[in-house]
Amino acid sequence: MSSTRTTPPLPASSPAEKLALSVVAGGLLTLLLALADADPARQQRWFYLALGLLGSGMLAWSWLKYGRHPAGVQQHSLWLRASTSRGAVAWVTGLVLTGFYVVLYWFSNDDGHGHFGPLNNLVHALDGFSRALRARPADQWFLYGTFYTLAVLLMGVRALWKYRHSRYQLIRTASVMFFQLGFAFLLPGLLQFFQQPEFYFTYFWPLKYDYLFPGTVTSLLQKGGLGVFMVFWGAAMSLLATPVLTYFFGKRWYCSWVCGCGGLAETAGDPYRQLADKSRAAWRWEVRIIYPVLVLIVVITVLLWVHFATGSTLLGAAGGVAAKWYGFVIGSVFSGVIGVGFYPIMGARVWCRFGCPMAAYLGLLQKHFSRFRISTNGAQCISCGNCSNVCEMGIDVKQYAQRGEPIIRASCVGCGMCSTACPRGVLNLENGPREGRYQGSQLIHADSLRILS
Amino acid sequence: MHLVIIGNGITGVSCALAVRRLRPGARITLVSAESAHHYSRTALMYVYMGHMRLSDIKPYEDWFWDENRLGLVYATATALNTAEQLVVLNNGTTLRYDALLLATGSESKLGGWPGQHLAGVQGLYGLPDLEAMARDTHGISRGVVVGGGLIGVELAEMLHSRGIEPVVLVREARYWASVLPPEEAHLVDRQFQENRVPVRYHTELREVLGDAQGRVRAVLTTAGEEIACQWVGLAIGVTPNLSLARMGGIDTDRGILVDELLRTSAAQVYAAGDCAQHRQPAAGEVPIEQLWYTGRLQGETVAHTICGQPTRYRRGIWFNSAKFFNLEYQTYGRAPAGPVAGMDHFYWEHPSGRAALRVYFQAAPPHAVAGFNALGLRLRQDVCQQWIRNHTPVAAVMAELGAANFDPEFFPQHEQALVAAFNRQFPQQPVVLKRRKGLRALFG
Ligand SMILES: Cc1cc2nc3c(=O)[nH]c(=O)nc-3n(C[C@H](O)[C@H](O)[C@H](O)COP(=O)(O)OP(=O)(O)OC[C@H]3O[C@@H](n4cnc5c(N)ncnc54)[C@H](O)[C@@H]3O)c2cc1C
Ligand code: SF4
Ligand code: SF4
User: What's the ipTM?
Assistant: First the structure.
């Protein structure tokens, strides 16, 4: 079954949409101007003009594209447009994103004279804002945080328009926007303003792995009352709240409602959710990679603590080296470069699905100790595949639905898109008693063939 | 045992899967002229609209068939010899069978209109139709859709998604008049209006008009209107695909005639799904069922008989679902379009016109519930069927309505408004809402 023979031409975008997109393009060009201009005052002007153009263009375009049409599932031409179906535009976008991450991680460090490599002018354009928020000049991470938050907010508005027929999606999208802006951007900045440690209350070990490393813990503990609270918060969230909340709500309470990585995936990554590979082969890779990452970070953490407690130099060296490599390979290359850079090619949840140790931990809890499941409505499934198509975690949802079985998968982040997209109202995210959680519908004769091993 | 199945649609595949489960050692061969692998016919529209690719509408990955030892043959069965139990394929092979299932599905009905052979006039049933539609709607501005049923609204939505104006001709006074009561049909009509799709009710196609190149240029309606268009979609229903059965000398009428065990007139030959016509349908049931669900059920049922466990086909409590643009529809049990003696109903509609519920029940006490129509709300099939099967009085159903609520979390819950409306319409059966939504309600 080739797909070209049934490919009709794309409907033309309206002139208004084209105009909005050119404003966005103008914003990107202006950003290049800011990057190139050596004059600090002009830099800043270009920079904010660029943000203004990007923001207004994006908002206008989202409204034109989604806001004007009657509320409902809006997926037209998803697999026909080059940008969302791994066409040339997608590859270019992927390259630009990947390039940005490479420059950011490895070529933008302060050279000691306040110079931040190729991104220098953009970083300094933010000095004023950074001083106001954090009482210190900007650095490359502040630039990154600003871009990240803007992406979540602007694309969040797009998602709000696109999914306005679903209250679940509205509330969930608002939630990730809130946590990104408040807890992952403003609050850490304010903490710095008040000379407190820069702390992210919405990131926990093992995702933010160093929060339970002896080094971080001891340095926080030295910072007085707030530092002690931060240590307590980090430990309690990782070891206590995570199992309890996951028991009641599934891993979604974090992955698609709170987490910043999830927040970006659900907003900026929304145009790419269909790109997640649904094959069994991809699932096998997922299991092969994600659990070893979890084991790795647990072992490293234990090593570091044993070293801390016993003072063994051998363990200390091993733990330190391992932590450094982990930070490079998993923390930077995997979660950043691949995780976001490959959005337009592999979908927005590559990191969440294949690499995130927090997702692995939450997933084990969700699969074995949770009240969460996605229920299937009797025998109503028509195997159309819309649910699998929109699953950003690459779960072949219809395999379960067409058998009348509930979906209980470690990787499901509970984004609810399968339920939103199903044209027959078959799927529902529910928390309920654990007895009978796996029970399928009596209205369909689930064949016992081996589908998923 | 060698089971040969003609047709790899939901019926043939369901039978193959069930036989594999019942008879792990059986040899099973699925023959299809349409596609190498089973795909979901119901999802054709989403491929056209670009929501998915063809590879995304295959219910099983390609390795599935090999791993479960299901032989696939991509060819047309051109002859059938029931005496010698042979099927001849157009690729030169001949298959000998111990059991043969005809699951040949349907074909689009054509109405016999003048001009229907013109280029750009078609139905939508299979992959060749999808291809033709993609090709013939390239860059056009208007298409006419003939038929006010489920495929009709799908065709309209497909055209609409590409910025092509659909004009829908509906013979009856309202949309899908044979199935939907006027209020429900009105809500569907609101969807047409909201999406700016013109619908001509009480209007039939009279003639398709062509241009010099033999392409459609307009249609003439029974109202005398000439509508300029570059494409015409005929969606007036489907009819069983009988060619192979006829060739094999098997008894047919409108469909391939089968008994309760889904056996045809020839020994060891069975028929199921869209192509089968029941000689004696159960009371209140139609002889030819053309649905995904019934195809699945018939396929599974006939598998048992083929495996030596004779099983009568029992459809069970009716259910169906559809989506009209942005309006979801689910129905359970008996839900007639018009008044039926001895049956009463309760209807509620949300002021927004985007949600409605109709509950059918016996007019005589204890007013056993008989069926549901839900628009814009999702109802739990298990719960509804249980109520219908147990003849639960409508008052009890209304009181427990939350147990059937399958809407996603945070969606507005209408149970209170529903019960209030019910109490206004049927003050003689006062109801107090007992159960709100939730899984706990289902298991508790
Ligand atoms: C556009 C569309 C949307 C639909 N939507 C819904 C819906 O939402 N819900 C619902 O319940 N139903 C829906 N239906 C109806 C549903 O799809 C059918 O009832 C169901 O697919 C029938 O399945 P089947 O296996 O009996 O036949 P089919 O799916 O038609 O399979 C028969 C197969 O046999 C092949 N075949 C026939 N003769 C030969 C031969 N001689 N040699 C080799 N191969 C042969 C055909 O090519 C075909 O592939 C829809 C139908 C269409 C066309
Ligand atoms: S299964 Fe559904 S809810 Fe879970 S991640 Fe996939 S689309 Fe989201
Ligand atoms: S669950 Fe819904 S979306 Fe998924 S295959 Fe079934 S009908 Fe389609």
Answer: 0.96
